[in-house]
Structures are given as C-alpha cells and as structure tokens.
Amino acid sequence: MVAELRGALIGCGFFAVNQMHAWRDIAGAAIVAICDRDPERLKVVGDQFGIVRRYVDAAALFASESLDFVDIATTAPSHLPLVEMAAQNRVPAICQKPFAPSLADAKAMVKACSDAGVALMVHENFRWQSPIQAVRAVLDSGDIGTPFFGRISFRSAYDVFSGQPYLATGKRFIIEDLGIHSLDIARFLLGDVSTITTRTARINPKIAGEDVATMLMDHKSGATSVVDCSYATKLAIEPFPQTLVEIDGSDGTIRLEQNYRLSVTGRNGTAVSDVSPPLLPWASRPWHNIQESVVAIQKHWVDCLANGTEPATSGADNLRTLALVEAAYAGAASGEPVQLDALL
Ligand code: NAD
Ligand code: 89V
Q1: Terminal Cα distance for the chain, rounded
Q2: Residue 152 and residue 182 in contact, taking contact as beta carbons nearer than 8 Å
Q3: Where are the domains of the chain?
Q4: Is the ipTM of this complex over 0.95?
Q5: What is the dihedral of CA 294, 296, 297, 302, to 10 degrees?
Q6: Burial class (CB in 10 A: 0-12, 13-18, 19+), 299
Q7: Exposed (0-12), middle (13-18) or buried (19+): which is 327, by Cβ within 10 Å?
Q8: Do domains 5-118 and 127-295+321-343 have the same CATH topology?
C-alpha cells in the first residue's frame, strides 16, 4: 500500500474550510497539522476536522513537522514569505490565488521553488469546475472547428463582502479577486494572450476598488475574446457563482448558459445538455460549483506529486494569468492596450 502524503494547511479562514473538506474526501493525502496566526480560527478548524497538531507560527510548523506538502490558504500579502519558507524546507506547496500582489513576488516564488526542486501549484480552481471542463471537452472533440471568438462572463450582485470583508477595502477588487479566474478560464479555453484592453468602473460606493471590468483580448491563436465581470449586475435570477461562456468556431458554437445549460451546435446539429456540478455531501448551494472544483484541483495535485508531473496551474503557468491581471490594471489606468510578452 502506498503511504498517504502528509500535508499541512496554513491559513484556516473562510475558504480553507472547503479545502479541509476536500482533503477529507481525497485518497492518498491527509492534513496532519494546521497553522493560523489567529488562535480562534485555529481552534474552529482544528475542532471541526479533528486536527490536534496546531501552530500559530508557520516557522514552528516547518521546524516540528515532517511534511510532503503544504496548502497555503492565506490572503496574497503572506504568500511570498510562506512559499519561500516551504522552498527553504524543501516542501512542495499549493498557494491560493491571487498568487501574489505583484508579478515580481510571483516570479520570486516560482524561482524559489524551482531552485529548491519542489513543486508549486496555484489553487486556481475555476478551470476545474465541471461545466468549464465540459466546454474544454467540446473544444477538444473538434466539433465546432477552430475557435475565433470567445466570451467569458461573470455578472452578479451577490454579496461577497459578508463572507470576505477584505474584498471591500482593497484598491483593487474585481479583476484581482474574480476576474483572475475568468482570465485563467480564457487562457484555458483559447490559449495565451498577446494584448489586452481594459475598462473598469466602480458602481457600489461603499467599496474601495472597481466592481466592473470589461477586457478585450487578442489570443496568440488568432482568436479574440471578451472577458467581462461585474458585482453590480442585478438580475432576475442571481447566477452567482456561475461563469457563462460563448465560443464561436469555424464549424459551430458553444454556449454555457445560466443553470449550467450547455448548448453545442456542430456539423451534425445542436445538442443541449445539463452540466450541473454535483452537490457534494458537505457542499451548499450556490457555492457547490466552486466546492466541487476544490476537490478536483486538490486531487490533481496528489496525482502530480505521485507521478512527478507539473500541475496544470503550476506557479510558472500562473505567471501568465497574473500578468493578465497586472496588464488589465495598467491598461485600465492608461486607456491603452497592453502587450503581455513585455511583462513576462
Ligand atoms: P480569510 O482572511 O478568511 O483567511 C485567511 C486566514 O489566513 C486568516 O485566518 C488569517 O489569520 C490567516 N493568515 C494570514 N496570514 C497568515 C500567516 N502568515 N500565517 C498563518 N496564518 C495566516 O481569507 P479567505 O477568504 O479564506 O481567503 C484566503 C485566500 O483564498 C485569498 O487569497 C482568497 O482570494 C482565496 N479564495 C479563493 C477562492 C477560490 O475559489 N479559489 C475562494 C475564496 C477565497
Ligand atoms: O473565488 C473567489 O476567489 C472568491 C469569490 C468567488 C467570492 O470571488 O473570492
């Protein structure tokens, strides 16, 4: 029997609870220790998941535990020191999105892990949602031919601030927190990007950052895409947290519509299917779509460690998604298109 990988979770906040549930469901890995600088969160998560080995200081965790990986679920400002600590201790690391507050920090983390010879994966889970994987499978089937246009759309008025109050206070909001997922999906479906043009707005006067963003991208494949996201869009039926997708190809079209309705028009006509994600026993609507993707990405990590393969959303891969975020903010400020290759 293959021994279970011994993991530790650093950061026991709002989202980490999903990650802990997912680890419990995954064969081949177990969380043996947890760390949070806030003793209250340490107690809540430790008691809920029966983890007795608890640390308020990450350095003490690395010094005392023998680990096969760490799962870093803190917010972005702490990612660089924590990933560097993992690299110094030769421990492979998962790091939550946004990977870093700046591309320079992200590049430093990729280098630190590469120099130490340890794997690094960014927890960029939206591309692992089963409806998004279903769209990718249609593209791979060749049914719609060569894609020339895409739209990745996330428009909602859901109150994200009650669960994640820090989202209301930062100078950057929707592109950095949510648009980052949509930009990653655009890369996943249509490939890397050469140029991005961005417009932003703040509609909610109670928050510090932008809550609306519209981005126009040239993909290296020749396709054009629009990535649009909004937390100021009041709809008859609230779609949170669904990403809607439109792709037009030389031979047909894909539409991922509200309520996970997938419509594919190809050479042989139109097929409509329900690609709703399953409601896992510990999950709750409307978050179940995201929660299922957490299990999928964490399983992928375990497979990659077992096989010695690079995760799909490795640190190196995620530099290209984070570069889109940087370029989007730069372009929103200047009003000009921004070239991606110059940033990488
Ligand atoms: P949170 O503030 O609720 O939790 C973060 C926790 O980390 C806190 O308990 C804090 O005390 C702890 N922490 C911070 N720095 C630490 C350090 N140096 N050492 C130990 N503990 C430390 O935040 P959250 O809402 O859970 O978000 C965490 C991250 O997850 C963010 O980057 C957020 O963008 C991301 N997130 C991802 C998804 C997703 O679908 N991938 C969804 C929600 C949030
Ligand atoms: O996925 C996320 O990063 C979350 C949310 C979906 C609420 O924006 O912050």
Answers
A1: 43
A2: yes
A3: 5-118, 127-295+321-343
A4: yes
A5: 120
A6: middle
A7: buried
A8: no
| Beta carbon of 179 within 6 Å of any ligand 2 atom | no
| Ligand 1 site, residue 37, Cβ cutoff 6 A | yes
| pLDDT tens digit sequence for 70-117 | 999 999 999 999 999 999 999 999 999 999 999 999 999 999 999 999
Whether the CB-CB separation of 11 and 74 falls below 8 Å is answered with yes
Annotate 43-100 with DSSP letters as a single string: HHHHHHHT---EES-HHHHHHH---SEEEE-S-GGGHHHHHHHHHHTT--EEEESS--
pLDDT digits (tens, 9 = 90+) for 149-188: 999 999 999 999 999 999 999 999 999 999 999 999 999 9
Asked if 313 and 127 touch (Cβ cutoff 8 Å), the reply is: yes
Nearest ligand to residue 293 Cα: 1
Task: Tell me the one-letter amino acid at 61.
Answer: L
Angle among Cα 114, 123, 62 to the nearest 5 degrees reads 60
Distance in Å, CA 221 to ligand 2 centroid: 29
Our answer on whether the CB atom of 241 is closer than 6 Å to any ligand 2 atom is yes
Q: Whose CA is nearest to atom 10 of ligand 1?
A: 11
List phi, psi (to 5°) of 199: -125, 140
Q: What's the CATH superfamily of 127-295+321-343?
A: Dihydrodipicolinate Reductase; domain 2 (3.30.360.10)
According to DSSP, residue 225 is labeled E
What is the fold of 5-118? Rossmann fold (3.40.50)
Backbone angles phi, psi at 248, to 5 degrees: -110, 130
Quickly state the pLDDT bin for 3 (edges 50, 70, 90). Answer: confident
For 152, half-sphere exposure in the C-beta direction (CA atoms, 13 angstrom radius) is 26
